[in-house]
Amino acid sequence: TLHCDTIEVTNPSSDTLWLDDIVLARNVEWSLPQHQRPLRLLPGQRHLLVVCWYATAHGSYHDTLCIVTPCGSACLPLLLQTRPTQWRAISRCGVAVETPIEVADQGQSLLLQTPATVRVRDCLGRILLECPSDGQTASIPTASLLPGLYILDRDGSPALLLVR
Fold first, then answer.
1. What's the count of helices (H) and strands (E) in the chain, helices before strands?
2. Which residues are registered as beta bridge partners of 79?
């Protein structure tokens, strides 16, 4: 999903400042909503600049925001860290239930850090794959699975496996 946050920009000078050139170095996952440009800052004025990003998978997303002024340019490194999706709910008794979920693309293997054998089950609990561990990791060949949601048994704790 699209997420946005703000960065505060301040004009410390005694002159009005027009900022036309506000850019992202990569401009792939990150964006600046166009309605913010050009930015006019009166002397001493502060303004919140909106920066948005769209993560396509979990991991790290880097970019650099550069604001060019008549006195030079200022660049700010941007970093977004995303985690795998988790489902969380509260039961009628007030007990929190949190289910870790692993995400894999169809046709690629999913490598899990586990010393135990991993079993992939369908929604009825039937074992579809049994993937032995080498003592440290187990590889799940997702090519044999259709896109969908599966139950992943590893180390005695179930999780969900989403194959895309």
1. 0, 16
2. 62
